[in-house]
């Protein structure tokens, strides 16, 4: 009659699943379910990753009335065609390195009507992922699903959406996300047009992150609700235009860009320049960029690998005015101090933003 809140089963590294290990895990999970466990985590760690080498979770686990949080790693979900999933009180689901087909995933979603938080990380066998009729879903994340062909999301109360993938679904549809507040996109082949069209559908978006989206070239964002904007390593981006009057933080990492904004005053900016060729023309573009920030931002953080990107040549310092003379606070972050000419860097910072 023991009542369990948390039960965590982590198997040490095994070459492969064997009948004895599977039987032991079945008994452990059965015991937890008999004790009406609420939070259940199962992690099997094979030395060889493959469908034949991972643990197949028992059918009883997929019909556990008591389970509210389910975390599966390196497992397999298998359902017969007539099998069903009944997880009426499940609120959080995390699948990492899980093997499952469309039938199992579809029934898992349909059988979890109260789900609030759902994530798929490096799963295998899923070709179609459709998120419908989950009115309580507020957080959803998809990360690197091999061979995913179709992803459709319709969740009216979703607040946070994360899409990450080295490969991408050929069909991606997001609809009825009117309450979305946070959107993060990693390594996606999204176009300028697609991004612009989607952002117009999210009137309450507060945080936007774009990482390694290498097709983007000209980012245009107009939003009165946006508070945080992160753009990182989108290698083809050449221009960023934003009209975001309530923006609090702007963070950019990449090559020197053209930047413009309408009447923007932002408390904080983080700028990490990644440029392989800092010629005189590049330094001029950098000064022009910093001068734009001088008009809009109170605090600026400059970052780079060694800091040398910000050592403006002396001939340009004699010809041009300091670009950040209005900024109240300037910070510098470098990754490798050993390679950094400290004296030159300090001198450069004092020119960029004179006391």
Automatic annotation (TrEMBL):
Gene3D superfamilies, sorted: Ribonuclease Inhibitor
InterPro entries in the cross-refs: At1g61320/At1g61330-like, LRR_At1g61320_AtMIF1, LRR_dom_sf
SUPFAM superfamilies: RNI-like
Segments forming a coiled coil: none
Ranges where the At1g61320/AtMIF1 LRR domain occurs: 6-167
Protein's UniProt name: At1g61320/AtMIF1 LRR domain-containing protein
Organism the protein comes from: Hevea brasiliensis
């Amino acid at each position: 009659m023991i009542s369990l809140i948390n039960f965590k089963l982590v198997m040490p590294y095994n070459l492969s699943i064997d009948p004895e290990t599977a039987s032991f895990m079945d008994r452990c999970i059965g015991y937890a379910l008999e004790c009406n466990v609420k939070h259940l985590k199962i992690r099997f760690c094979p030395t060889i990753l493959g469908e034949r080498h991972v643990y197949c979770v028992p059918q009883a686990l997929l019909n556990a009335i008591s389970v509210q949080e389910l975390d599966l790693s390196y497992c397999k979900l298998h359902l017969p065609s007539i099998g069903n999933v009944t997880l009426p009180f499940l609120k959080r689901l995390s699948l990492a390195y899980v093997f499952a087909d469309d039938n199992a995933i579809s029934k898992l979603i349909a059988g979890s009507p109260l789900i609030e938080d759902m994530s798929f990380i490096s799963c295998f066998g899923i070709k179609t992922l459709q998120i419908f009729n989950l009115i309580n879903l507020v957080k959803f994340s998809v990360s690197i699903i091999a061979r995913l062909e179709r992803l459709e999301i319709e969740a009216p109360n979703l607040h946070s959406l994360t899409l990450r993938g080295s490969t991408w679904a050929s069909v991606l549809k997001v609809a009825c996300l009117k309450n979305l507040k946070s959107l993060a996109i990693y390594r996606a082949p999204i176009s300028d047009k697609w991004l612009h069209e989607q952002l117009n559908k999210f009137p309450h978006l507060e945080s936007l992150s774009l990482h390694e989206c290498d097709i983007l070239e000209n980012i245009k964002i107009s939003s009165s609700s946006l508070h945080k904007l992160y753009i990182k390593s989108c290698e083809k981006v050449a221009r960023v235009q934003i009209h975001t009057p309530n923006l609090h933080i702007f963070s950019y990492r990449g090559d020197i860009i053209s930047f413009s904004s309408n009447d923007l005053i932002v408390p904080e900016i983080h700028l990490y320049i990644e440029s392989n060729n800092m010629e005189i023309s590049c330094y001029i573009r950098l000064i022009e960029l910093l001068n734009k920030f001088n008009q809009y931002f109170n605090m600026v953080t400059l970052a780079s690998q060694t800091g040398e990107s910000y050592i403006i040549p002396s001939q340009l310092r004699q010809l041009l005015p300091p670009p950040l003379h209005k900024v109240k606070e300037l910070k510098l972050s470098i990754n490798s101090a050993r390679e950094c000419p400290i004296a030159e860097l300090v001198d450069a910072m004092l020119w960029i933003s004179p006391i």
